[in-house]
Amino acid sequence: MFSNVATEPTGGNWRGGFEAAHLEEYFQHLSVFLGEGFRKWTFHLLHHNLAVRPLQLPCFGKGHVLIWFSDESSGPADDAAAKFEHVFKCYALPDPCPINVHAFPLFGASAVLHTDLIEFDRRDYQVFFSGNLNRQRAPLFLRLKFPTLDILPSSTLGTAATCSLSLFSKGLRAISHDIHSLPSSFIRFNGGFATGLTRREYAEVLAKSKICLCPPGFITNETMRHFEAMKLGCVVVSKTLPVSPYYTNSPIIQLDNWRGIHKILTSLIADNNRLHSIASATRDWWEKTCSPLSAARETAHILTKS
After folding, report:
1. Which of 182, 229, 238, 274 is 20 to 30 A off residue 281, Cα-Cα?
2. For residue 92, what is the DSSP state?
3. What is the pLDDT of residues 175-219, one digit of tens each?
């Protein structure tokens, strides 16, 4: 099934990838929406790395679609646009953007898609975060770890955080830090990438949480965590996100910086009715805008106009 879908540059099996379950569901829906027209298209999946970019791929041309994951740069996409009839790209689109380059959701880990929703009032944790302590997350870490620092301006704390991580990188970043400044919460900054919870554990704890903190990744404010949290009906708290069909007018709580985050979270925790309302709107937003079904519907709409 789906013999017209392959990874690049090897042309290998895509079903072992990080977001394989989402893609499986996406292509199932897309094949239904397009009907006989689905076989008209060949879909190329590219996970960007330093060795392979669209510039290194052949010119496939008409009838070929590139789905481009993992490129956080939002840099020029002209090379991809020239080699495929359509390009669907995760993360912020370049500006200016070629007419045949379109937004695509990040989806997330397969384990999250396979995790059932838990009734909001039966969730165990108020606030959840588990992830690597990188430089972009240092200001949030310090404000949560030491709430008395929360009064400091972002510029001051940002400089202090950078210095701390530079001077104490082997100590501060090499171990996991559990944050206990908020009640009934699971907040853990890990000492490295993929060194914390397993994917299954992560999905289970996320499903049991009311609020999910979504700090930036290594490069951009966008992360898979946003989509995973929306799918499981969490209230998402994030730094400001780019203009995108997945974020603009969404229920995501977007902050210019992390100053006052402890007070913001405490206020949210105290208002369960507001939390419930935002969480419900967030889950509905994911269903209508970010899910494999909604992505397939949008893709089919674009392809049928070609």
Report:
1. 182
2. P
3. 678 898 899 999 999 877 767 899 999 999 999 999 999 999 988
**Count of residues in the chain:** 306
Q: Is the pLDDT of residue 168 over 50?
A: no
In our burial notation (b when 16+ CB lie closer than 10 A, e otherwise), range 35-64 reads eeebeebbbbbbbbeeeebbeebeeeeeeb
Judged by DSSP in three states, 15 sits in coil
- Helix boundaries (H) for the chain: 20-34, 78-83, 110-113, 138-145, 154-167, 169-172, 199-207, 224-231, 261-270, 272-285, 292-304
pLDDT of 149-158, one tens digit each?
A: 766 676 666 5
Q: What is the DSSP string of 248-269?
A: TT-S-EEESS-TTHHHHHHHHH
What contacts 305, CB < 8 A, 6 or more positions away?
A: none
Distance CA(37)–CA(43), nearest Å, equals 13
Give the tokens for residue 231. Answer: 């799918």
> How far is Cα 240 from Cα 299, in angstroms, rounded to an integer?
26
Report pTM.
0.91
Phi-psi bin for 48: left (phi > 0), alpha (psi -120 to 50), beta? beta
Whose tokens are 């045949």? That residue is 100
Domain edges within the chain: 5-105+292-304, 111-289
Domain 111-289, CATH 3.30.200.20 — does that match?
A: no
Complete DSSP assignment for 108-132: --HHHHTSPP--GGG-SEEEEEEEE
